[in-house]
Structures are given as C-alpha cells and as structure tokens.
Prior knowledge:
Blueprint: H1 2-11, H2 13-21, E1 35-38, H3 44-53, E2 58-63, H4 66-73, E3 80-84, H5 90-107, E4 111-116, H6 131-141, H7 143-159, E5 162-166, H8 179-199, E6 205-211, H9 217-232, H10 235-240, H11 250-254, H12 260-271, E7 278-281, E8 283-284, E9 287-288, H13 290-298, H14 301-312
Parallel strand pairs: 1-2, 1-4, 2-3, 4-5, 5-6, 6-7
Antiparallel strand pairs: 8-9
Amino acid sequence: MLKIFLIGLLLSLIPLLLNYASRREYPTPPSGGAAVVLSGASTGIGYDAAVHLADDFVVYAGVRKENDAEMLRSVGKSTLVPVILDVTSQDSIDEAYVKITADAAERGIPVWGLVNNAGIMTASTVEHHDVAGMQKIYDVNVWGVLRLTQKFLPLLRAQAGRIVQISSIAGFLTIPRASGYCSSKHALESLSDGLRLELAHYNVSVTVVQPGAVRSAIFEKSQSASQAKLAEDPRELKVYGHMIKEGSTDSIMAKADTPDCTTKAIRQALMDRYPKTREVVANIDGLPAIFAHYMKHMLPDRVLDKMLLSTFA
Ligand SMILES: *[C@@H]1O[C@H](CO)[C@@H](O)[C@H](O)[C@H]1NC(C)=O
C-alpha cells in the first residue's frame, strides 16, 4: 500500500510540473474597479465569499429572499449589494440583470466576474431518487449555472472577465446516496471545461473550485429533507437501511473547514494573473480533500469502493 502511494506521489509530480509550465496569463481586474455577480449568497460559502470579495469588488450578491437581502445590507458595506435572484427562474435572472447593469453603470464599473455558487443537495439512492427531486437539483446546480452564465457572458466576454464555478469534490468523486448531487456536479465540471475552451480566445478565465467538507447549510438542509422523505416513503429504508446510518457523516461535518478556504480560492480565481483551471480545497474527514482527488485518479474503482463503503455504508 505504502509503495503504491509513494509511486503515485512521484507520478503526480509530472502533472504538477506540467501544470506550472502550462499556466496561462489572463487580464487582471480593471484598476478602476469592477463588479462581480455571485449566486447563493445567503449562507455558507456564498455568504462568506460575498462579504469578503466586497473588499476588492462591488459584489452583486444573489439571494432568493428579502430577509436575506436585509441581512446582507446589515453587514453595512456599500460594495456589498444584495440582489433578489432565483437561478431556477429566467424571469428572476432577467430582472436581476437589469438592476445589476443599471447599478454598475451608475457606479461607472464593468460587470467583470461571475461566481456560480448556488447549489442544493438531496440524499437518496439512485433506485429511490424521484425524478422530480433530481430535476430540482439539476435546475439549480446545472440549468441555474447555464441560465446565469448565458445571461452575463456577453458582458464578461466584452471585458475579458472571469468565471468561477463552485463545484465540489463530488465533481469527480461519487458517494452512495448522493448520486443526484454528485452527477449534477460532474455535469458542472464538463460544462466548465467546455466554457474554458470556448472562452480561451476571449481571455475569459474559468476556474472550478472543488471544496471538500465546508461548514455550510447545504448539509443540514439536505439531511432534514432526506429524513422527511424517508419518513414519508420508507421503501428506501427497507432496501438500503444498511447504508442509512444515523450520523454517518457527523465526523466529516465535525471536521469541516470554515469557508475561509473557499473564499481564498475564489478570490485568487478572480484576481491572480495566472488563474488555476481547478482547485481542490478544504478537507474530508480530516484529510486534505486533494487526497480524494489522487485516490480517485490513481486507485482502481474496486479499491476506492471499499474505502467509500467503509465510510458511508
Ligand atoms: C487575449 O490576450 C492576448 C494576450 O494578451 C492578446 O494578444 C489577444 O488579442 C487577446 N484576445 C482578445 C480576443 O482580446
């Protein structure tokens, strides 16, 4: 096992060197100020990023509810501007676009960056995932990104701006009873690769941030939704009860990082001269999440399966 690990570590030096040698320079934020649109700013990763990015940008922080907008206003930064935004609704996006472009024009700054952060999660086995439930996940995590990106892309392209996608280690690793979420993040990864290739000519950088466990409301929301679903329809419990252990992810969540790490990665993706294409951040069960990346790409499926099943089942 140790030998495999050491050989793997050595082999991973080659891509690391290539990665450095192939880094690409992109235009940095305009010196006269710039605006960034961020979705899902009410809690967790999005909230922390919105509040801190407001030190360097005018942040249009998308939230769905008026009381969340009020909460962001109470932070008291004139550069943190809450906007009502529901990424599942084209009308909501269109309305937000009008408000954002008008406000940015008034401030005399371009809309330069987009952070696709809004995301939801539901726990269920593939067998029992109702189609409507999975469509709901995709409506936020995939179609929501598509809608918002398509709307703002002409502005970003004209300014050689930047796009940051908040994916997850679920973008390359699938865990049991989370195929809806994991497959949506896999889709986001591919969508982002396509964007990066298509926008290379226009010097618009696309960075995918892949966090491990970060303290965020997404897990609690997902857990309570999953428990409600199990109570309503116990069929899943009957067939997959051996996988549904009370508190099986408690240790992972107890060790979750604060959103400082995601905010730092988002900031770098927006500001560095050499933005990364991808960045794995935070930890998973105490191990740096980058190890999950190595494991996924170096270990055979059956070996990885054993590790995942021992943790999640
Ligand atoms: C992209 O950046 C390169 C290098 O700075 C520049 O030569 C090129 O004209 C830019 N492309 C566009 C479409 O602006």
